C-alpha cells in the first residue's frame, strides 16, 4: 500500500555506478564474442544455418543488436551531456556532433553502408593484401572525419572525460580500420582459418569496448557538468 511517506526507488548517477555500468557492458560484449568464437571453432556444434545468428562477423544478428544498442546508448548520453552544457552556457556543439556521428555509425553497423564502398575502394587500388576489404580505403577518410569530430568534442571536457573519449575512439577505429586491414591480409594469404577467425573477433571486441569508453566519457561529463562548483 502506498503512503505519502513511500519513497520511489531511483538509481543515482555516481562515479561508482558509471564504472560499474561500463564494466557490465564490457563483460556482456566479452560473453557474446566468446560464445561466437567457441561456435566458430566448432567446440559447440549448432546447425550451420544458424551460425550467422551468433557470428560477430555476420550482419543482422545478436552481435549487431548489441553493437547498435551500445552506439545508440552512447549517442543519447552524449546528446544529454550536450544539452546540459548548453543550459549552463558551456561548449556543447562538439558533443552534439559526436552524438550525431554515433547515430550514423549505428545505422552503418545495422545496414552495412560501408560495404557499398567496396567498388570505390577497388578503383582506388584496393582488393588484395591489407586492402583485401577494399572499403577501408574510402572508409578511412570517413573515419578521419569522425575522429576530428570527437577530438573537437573532447577539447572542452575534463581530463578524465577526454582520456575516455580518446581511448574509445582509438579502440573503435583501431579495430574497424587497423585490425580489419590486418585480418584482410591474413584472409588473402591463408584463407578462412583460425587465425582469421581470431582476428575478426578481436576486431569486434575492440569496437564494442571503444563504444563503452565513449559512453563512459559521456556519463562522466554529465557528472562533471551537473556537480555544483567547489
Task: Describe the fold and architecture.
With 230 residues, the protein is an all-alpha fold. Helix content is 70%, strand content 0%. It is built from 7 helices and no strands. The longest helix is centred in the C-terminal third of the chain and has 33 residues, at 194-226. The chain starts with 14 loop residues before the first helix and ends with a helix.
Question: Summary?
Answer:
By secondary structure, the protein is mainly α. 70% of the residues lie in helices and 0% in strands. The protein is built from 7 helices and no strands.
What would the keywords be for this entry?
mainly alpha, 230 residues
Which class do the helix and strand fractions yield? mainly alpha
The pLDDT mean sits at 93
Tally the beta strands. Answer: 0
The biggest beta sheet is recorded as: none
Topology:
Elements: H1 15-40, H2 62-87, H3 93-111, H4 118-123, H5 136-154, H6 159-190, H7 194-226
